[in-house]
Amino acid sequence: MLPINKILAPTDFSETSVETLANASELSAHFNAELIVVHVIPPIPTLPSDPHYNFEVPAYQDALRDNAKKQLEETIHKYVSSTVKVTSHVSYGDPAKEIVRISEEENALKQILILYLWLNIFSFLYGLVMGSYHSIPQALASGLKVPVLFVVVLLICFPAFYIIQSILGSRLKLLPKA
Question: CA-based, 20 to 30 A from 31: which of 54, 55, 63, 74?
Fold first, then answer.
C-alpha cells in the first residue's frame, strides 16, 4: 500500500470544496493520515487615496482572519471525522501561491516523489509479469519498457493538458514567477 501520511485540502467554503474536504477526511481516516486544511484570504484591492475616506485595513484583515478561522473550525467540526488528526492554516495572499508554500512547508513534494517512485516500481512489476508469460529476457524488457512508456506518455500529453487547462480558463502558470 502507498505510504500516505498527509493530505492537503484547500477550501474556500464553497459546496464543492466542502464536499472535497469530506472526501479528504475519509481518505485520511482510511490511511490514518494527517489532514491539513487550508483557507487563503485573497489580497485586499488597493483603496482610493481620498483623505476623507477612512478605512482601517489592518482591522479589516484581522476581522477577515477571525471570521475565516471561525468558519474553518465550524467546517472542520461538521465535515471531518473526529478520529482524523487535523491541522488548519489560514493565510493571506494569492491562493495558488499560498497553497504551494504550505505544501512545501508540510513536505508534500517529498510525498509526491515517493508516490511517483511507487508508480514506477508498480509499473516495472506490471511489465515484468506481462513479459514473464514469454521468457525471462522478455520479462526484463517489458519491466523496463512500461515505466519508460508511462513517463513518455506523460511528457507527450502534458502540453495538451496545459493547453486544455488554459482554454478552460485556468490561471495556473507553467512556471512560478520569480
Answer: 74
